[in-house]
Amino acid sequence: MLLKLEEILAIFPERLRSKSRTYFKSFHINRIKDFAPFVSHKRPPYRKRVTDFMLVTKGNSVRTKGLNQYELKPNTVFFIPAFQIRTTEFNSDDLDGYFCHFDDTIFDNKLFPQESFKNFSFLQYLGNPLINIPESEMMYITHLMEQLIVEYQNESIDDFKVISSILMALFYKLGSYDNEVYPKLKNKASILTQRYKNELMKHIYDLHFVADYADLLGVSQNYLNLCVKKTIGKTALTLLTDMQLIEAKSLLRQSEMNISEIGFALADKNPSDFSRFFKAKTGFTPREFRNNADF
Question: What are the residue boundaries of the HTH araC/xylS-type domain, all occurrences included (predicted)?
């Protein structure tokens, strides 16, 4: 079940609903427990026009950013930049914390120049989205989240200056915990595999063969395949196919492109070849997937 705007607004007091409707596309924050009936336990690939993040204080969640999967535990925060493809794989029944989304336009460029956001890897398309917060710092972080809720529900505020200032304070604090972009990458094979994933996310519409990515990375196709297999137990071709499927599912659900256009855009396949490819990997035809929200 996906959360609809009308359902979100119904949770707010009547006096705040008109303001919340206006604000929602630019900024929103809520306590997860307040939206428990609407939280989807699993959601297929999708994109959003805003950056969002979730702070977990209880329970756990499994989410993906592109081809990478992350487990969110208590005292972690997870960011997804705008337009980044993502999925929700699992939410525990006791999941609690905060969910927030924001549009970049809420930040006054004079106060917060765009250059300042480059300091935060978790806001970057290819950066590390998951941050572990020390237990000793959680009270301060949750205080900032509560302040955001207070400001969001303050009917006398007509702009985002206070909200954007609190967000920036939060980003700088979280940035102090985020010391390494990919702290678990310890050998050449895992580093190359991550670079391959990054290039797949950037070039999936331009490059359709493993050999193209091997050339881009400056290695042989065999060496790339060996490193990917050693690191994640999959072939380089399987990883390419996984990315094509993630993108295809997102386009089928969120775009008006027809099936032929999607097939050509992602894999240079004609409609019948793309339909066979999609059904072989998912068990459904592209049309069935597009028309059935339960898949």
Answer: 194-292
On whether residue 147 sits in a domain, the answer given is: yes
pLDDT at 183 over 70: no
Average pLDDT in the chain: 87
Residue ending a domain, choose from 175, 202, 222: 175
Give the predicted TM-score (pTM) of the model. 0.80
- For 229, the token pair is 């297999």
Angle, CA of 284, 271 and 205, to the nearest 5°: 90
Cα(294)–Cα(44) distance, rounded to whole angstroms?
A: 9
Domain count along the chain: 2
> Would you call 148 exposed, middle or buried from its count of C-beta atoms within 10 A (0-12, 13-18, 19+)?
buried
DSSP state of 121: G
- Whether 285 and 143 map to the same domain: the answer is no
Own/partner pairs for 255-263, CB < 8 Å, 24+ apart? 259/286, 259/287, 259/290, 262/286
* Measured CA angle at 144 (ends 96, 118), to 5 deg: 100
Q: Is the pLDDT of residue 187 over 90?
A: no
Q: Which residues span the domain enclosing 195?
A: 188-291
Within this chain, do residues 196 and 93 fall inside the same structural domain, yes or no? no
What token pair was written down for 204?
Answer: 């999936």
Residue 173 CA to residue 243 CA, distance in Å, equals: 33
Q: Could you give the CA distance from residue 144 to residue 150 in angstroms, rounded to a whole number?
A: 10
Mean pLDDT check: name the lowest of 15-24, 73-82, 203-212, 242-251.
Answer: 15-24
